[in-house]
Amino acid sequence: MEKLIVHKDGFCISTDKTKLNIGIIYKFLSTEAYWCLNIPKDKVLNSIQNSLCFGIYKDDEQVGFARVISDFSTIAYLGDVFILNNYRGIGLSKWLVKTIMDHPDLQGLRRWILLTGDAHGLYRQFGWTDIADPTKWMELYNKKIYSK
């Protein structure tokens, strides 16, 4: 898979995993992300290794992140999307989601999925909707998996 790099207004989005600042990603996910508080660092590393990752940078400083799990043919799961607090409110999350959804290897998918507790408005701008038929969906969910 070819690495993607796009620039806009002094920021850069890249799929180059060698640019990722694991410390920033781990700190945010383990201490600020309501969906995975206390996640162990080895889980974060493993998730990055097995995903298509998008870092967003100001100069060489990482200011945001997202990752996609996909078979690159029929389905993609968008997860761990965040922009650091100091960089929110300037359109970076919109640009990040658009860049992800426009990625050449993620075109023609039958289904995209994600979970969000607070960003429905962001994703609706890109055509995301509530699950059409929730009676068809099942899950096995361990809410306390990272509890100490």
Short description:
The chain has 148 residues and is α+β, with helices and mostly antiparallel strands. The chain is built from four helices and six strands; from the N terminus they run ββααβββαβα. Helix content is 23%, strand content 26%.
Spell out the blueprint of helices and strands.
Layout: E1 5-8, E2 11-14, H1 22-31, H2 41-49, E3 52-58, E4 61-70, E5 75-83, H3 92-101, E6 111-114, H4 120-124
Parallel strand pairs: 5-6
Antiparallel strand pairs: 1-2, 2-3, 3-4, 4-5
Care to describe what's here?
One of its GO terms (molecular function) is acyltransferase activity, transferring groups other than amino-acyl groups. Residues 12-148 form the N-acetyltransferase domain. This is GNAT family N-acetyltransferase. It is a single chain. The termini are far apart. The protein is of the alpha+beta class and 148 residues long. The model has no long low-confidence stretch (mean pLDDT 96). The longest helix has 10 residues, at 22-31. It is built from four helices and six strands; from the N terminus they run E-E-H-H-E-E-E-H-E-H. Strands 1-2-3-4-5-6 form a six-stranded mixed beta sheet, sandwiched between helices. It has a single domain (5-136), classed as Aminopeptidase.
